[in-house]
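ok trying again, last paste got cut off:
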Amino acid sequence: MLERILKLEEARDDSLFLWGSRQTGKSTLLKALFPNARYYDLLKSDLRMMLQIRPSQLREECMMLDDGELVIIDEVQKVPALLDEVHWLIENKGLRFILSGSSARKLRRSGANLLGGRALRRTLFPLVSAEIPEFNLNRALNNGMLPRHYLVENPTSRIQAYIGDYLQQEIVEESIVRQLESFTRFLQIAALSNAEIVNYTNIAQDCGVSAKSVKEYFTILEETMLGFFLPAYTKVIKRRVSVSPKFYYFDVAIPNHLLRRTPLRHGTDIYGHALEHFVIQELRAYLAYRMPVKTLTYWHTSDNRYEVDAVIGEAEIGIEIKSTASVSLGDTKGLRAFGEEYPEAKLILLSLEERPRMINGIEMWPVEQFLQRLWQGKIVKE
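nice, full thing came through this time. structure:
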């Protein structure tokens, strides 16, 4: 079993919500970290039905535990009423809880008790490169980083099943959307727009729905942890900048499999988009696991002349991602403009070159070497 970086050490003293997309490995992680905890798996239909009918049974059973013991409720969003019982048990019995799930949307929509700050929030992301012995970049771009997908030679059938079963059926079953055909079309258009600045009007025209509906669809993907927005860095020094976010699916393999454009080939625009997506995915997980106070944004001037793919913190680090094996001076223009705006920023260009080098103050790293240094704590300062 792969060892995950997220250790949930806070659970020794506090209760937690653990969120993460389906198949990121939440259940496996919880069972490995806390083998002696009382465990309620709400994917079991008989247990779920029993607690839906009579949520108080959770309290009655947990009253038999010693004060301070740990209780895990997996897929908690399936029985929102349990959160009132959890609240009471935290307050009156001193129990600790880990409440895991793939979406807080259903809990919020149902008006469920979200414990009023009594539980910390943590997220488990797909695998990251540092968790995989003999990590293979091309496999990651083609297979994605969900454990069930990365670890097999050909994950196409698994990924297509994941897309069909989760991205469509479960969302519809929760009554989140009513027009499946429009939403399915939106999923494909969102895949075409993956890693791009979001333009709701253009996407709405392509989908044949209103811009309001498109905004709601994006919100659904975000709240069900199937995608995320990367905000723009908007602190202006001289150049006017874009303020619209970019959108990414939560895992690098999803957009290309939605559009059936795999396997990816070196030298294509699609490969370059996937490489950018993957690095953003790694940076997002790194900051969430190691430095949650640091922000991740991107920088794009409003005249469309300059862009930097990732900005960490308050313009502390600017990162540009190129899929070329031979970097030219033109590849650095965005970073050079960013450096003029923010002279104290560390400037990094990632590529498929074989060895690191420095040009005009810009650090150039092969992607895999950069990722090793990132997870060793050598890139971002606390």
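cool. The mean pLDDT is 92. The two ends are 30 Å apart (CA to CA).
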